[in-house]
Design brief:
Length: 293
Amino acid sequence: MLHSVFAAAKRLARVGVKNVDPRVFFPEDKKQEEGIRKISEELKSRWQESKSGGYRAGDDAYRFARPEYIRRLSGKSKQGARYKYAGFDQLVHISSGIIRFFLEPAARMFADQQKANGGGEVSFITSSIQDDEIRNQCDELLIERFDVLKGDVANSDELRSVDKLRNLIQGLGSLFQACLMDEKASQRRMFSFVISDSPTNEIESLLALATRFGYIYQDTVGNKSGMGRTKLYVLSRRLAPAYKLDPIGFSGYLSVTNNFLLEISERPNAFVNRLKKNGVNAVVDGSPQLSLL
């Protein structure tokens, strides 16, 4: 995070914004953070009364306050009530530490803010402009890029692969969203999964395609037996706005089977209906695991 602060400050200086803390230049939404703080205090009080939950009251507050804020906000019917992806730290998490994925949207934010200021000096980027650009970036990745991929395919087999890839990403996003919306879940920040059995060539090809085009990143994690490591697949946090996900901080991962991924890629509507009806635990292979991502 310190490296990101230094890099951002250096880039800001190049465009004439000198001696400014990037956290001041990219402020959080104050109303939103106050709402999250109140939920944090609520969770701490609940823990102290019940003596259940995390090892410390702060554990529950840290893990659940922001996801719970997003869940409650999602239940509001009034138009325009949505979570804002704003604030320097949140922008860094969304970029997954890849400087290009921070700088490109930041440059567009700057241009939009300059226009909003009538061409005048830009001393900070409003949370609304930050949020709009992050959502535009998400749409580019989830909608426009898929349209480009479909336009570039050479035959019907490649077209089916693109469709299956889109289904897979949509299904995973819906799955992770269901985790966040589950009030009883032990871990609600989900972006990752491991495959508990041997993936087929078809699933390996789809995951390789997803990695190639930036929808998924690959890492490794210790396997359940405690002996050796296995591949960990991480959904790009740039897709967080599409599925109302919390991109900040620690995350858990799910254990799924090859057939589970195959079902998502081939019958996404059936999967989403089953997910809504039966919940996360009924559709995945194993309970959520904790990881230090």
